[in-house]
Design goal:
Blueprint (H helix, E strand, L loop, with lengths): L2 E7 L1 H10 L7 E7 L18 E4 L2 H11 L6 E3 L4 H15 L6 E5 L3 H10 L7 E4 L10 H13 L5 E4 L2 H9 L4 E3 L4 H22 L2 E8 L7 H9 L3 E5 L3 E7 H9 L13 E8 L2 H17 L5 E5 L4 E6 L4 E4 L5 H10 L3 H12 L6 E2 H8 L3 H13 L3 E7 L8 E6 L5
Parallel strand pairs: 1-2, 1-3, 3-4, 5-6, 5-7, 7-8, 12-13
Antiparallel strand pairs: 9-11, 9-12, 10-11, 13-14, 14-15, 16-18, 17-18
Helix pairs in contact: 5-6, 13-14
Amino acid sequence: MKTKIALIGSREFLERVQTSIASDLNGIELVPYIYGEPQEASKLMKDITPCDAVLFSGALPYFFSEQACRTLTVPVLYLEQDETALVTSLLYILHHHRIEPDRVSIDLMDRSFIDHAQSDLHLKNPPQYVMDYKESLPHNFNINDYTDFHRQLFQDGKTEMALTSIHAVYDRLIELQIPCMRMIDPAKSLIRAIDEAYSQSLLSKRKAATIAAVRLSVQQWDGEHEHLHEFARLMKGSLQKHGDDAYTIYSNRGSIEHFLESTDFPSLFQLEHPVLAGFGYGHTAAQAEANAETALSFAKKVDCDGCAFILNEDKELSGPYPDKSKKQHLKNDTPEMLSLAKQLKLSPSNLSKIIQFSKSRSSRDFTAAELSDYMQITRRSTERILKKLVDNGSAKIIGEEMTYAQGRPRAIYELTFPIY
């Protein structure tokens, strides 16, 4: 089945795409949506039929539609204007009309493109009359300002031609009988943008199909399961019981994210008894379950009646929901971190947790019990890690504390390797 991309642009842009490159796009179907002026693009959102991605012809229609695009569940991209389009257009004008760049008025996305082109090409007569719309989007943009900009310069005899990247401005200048040309979008740039939309759609599908597990801990449950079965149905998953008050829902990431964005999600925490939840994503069922269990362990540490955390396959932790959301990174895979883990003879995951533990504390010193509680591992495992750190000089014992009348005093540690 072909990948369907909704292509939003002016009539001239869409006709050019259909005649110049559409036949070269294997496995891709372009569905055109036409606007008269960029501001009208947002109104087309309600007309888009099911598709795999949405591609705008430029930054203008995209920014005017940005609010409406937030409801879309497919990738949204736009054709980015760059120096290639500018240089190609100026070369066309010079070659076919014999007009120097300094006699051309130009409107474009970003004025810096002019500086880059001048620096790269060492232009003797660089463009002087330039108007960009980068800072005016979307609230301060007025299409009449750009038409008047080109018109006034031509009538004053300062320019011989207008180069515009706004198709509606081109149409108005033609009506005013002012020599003008649309900015040329090179075929290579168009193909690259469509290929990117295609790649993003495939990535989005793979991401949505990622395995998801939801660990639920329901306190003082009276055996009435209809609510949990209903939530499993909303997540398009199956419910399984683990122990007296623990349940797991198995589904996929796309269904879970749809549930999280729906009005049904907050009701999960409005049951008679508090619900703690951990959402986990993974490339395998085992990874999803492990991430869900880790996310649930964070929910259990929060002082609230009911809440949830989400841990994805990249070890990014979000939560607590539903009241607020903040992200943490539970994975460090930089070359420096891997090198340090090897030097300290620790796994990267344990090293990451120790660093995050240290950063979360107001004091440098800690005990094995405190680290064990944070890492959610046994005291014996924690002491083995600390012995390894002490033996290779990455931690040191700086004191002891006696919290009980009997028994051995507990060592107080301090890390000696860089953590920032």
